[in-house]
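Hi team,

As requested, here is the filled-out complex form for the pantoate run. I kept the field names the same as last time so the parser does not choke. Let me know if anything looks off before we queue the next batch.

— J.
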Amino acid sequence: MEILVIGAGALGLLIAGLISHNGGKVTLFSRRSDAVEYISRNGIKIVAQNIDYVSRVKCTSVIERDKKYDLAIVTVKSYDTPEIAKLLGENLNTDTQVLTIQNGLGNAETLARHLGQQRVYPGITMQSSTRLGINEVYHAFNGLTIIGEYAGPPTERTKMLADYLSRHGVPTGVSENIWRDLWFKLMVNSVINPLTAIMRVKNKNLLEVPSVDLLIRNILSEIISVAKLHGHEFDFDECYEKVIKIIKDSGDNKSSMLQDIENKRRTEIDNLNGMVVSLASKYGLEIPVNNALTVIIKGIERTAKQ
Ligand code: PAF
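And here is what came back:
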């Protein structure tokens, strides 16, 4: 299988590096020609708890119509999805399937508008990585990736794809209801990302903050009410326990939003808590805790740029 990984951020470098290290054929796409040149020359360096290695991948800043990749894995920031979806729609070979494992809601829908639903697999990942340099990431947690079909239950092709990724260093399961799983991942990111970015702590240190538990519970219960209005029922205790477990499992990671704030980059807040706030207001619901987090992150983004 020929894989094209779209995006050379913390997640893209990790996924490309893992698949290539485990024997897969990978090309990494980045719009930054300096990154393409550097990674082509030096490979991707993955630093994990007990081992470090360099993984060699092909790199490109051009997507060619006649190059038949079997799968493109989209890892770019959610605010870049419209531009990437257009680029893929115009340039990717029509036989190439596309998997999104990005944070936030709305990515699969945007990709499907340019590529067609049949070609798009929505997915989520608990893989946790911190970018250390242009070609270097720290792999904090080898979390599960889950993929599904855009419409309907998983098919033989979904299972084959999950099996391929699992055999190539990216443990992957299939989901009977990926749209519901995307809401659960939204809860994970809406708790971990803004709180760690505001408090400037690694995931594991979040739980040491006095009284943070009530804040986590409030974020979750607001999102669960909006999810219900949107057609997805969740049990509060089950979500709470799973989110706490993910915070601990990914403990050594700096969340992607903390990395964005530290590097003075735009964050994904609009596709996380911000998106839940917009949906809530469409349903006539106020969710003050998620709203406050959205406003605070927007304020931090603004001052970081000045
Ligand atoms: O965005 C992130 O940082 C990641 O999705 C996760 C799983 C929360 C780990 O930090």
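Two things worth flagging: The pocket of pantoate is lined by residues 103, 126, 128, 188-189, 192-193, 203, 250, 253, 255-256 (CB under 6 Å). DSSP finds twelve helices and twelve strands in the chain.

Thanks,
J.
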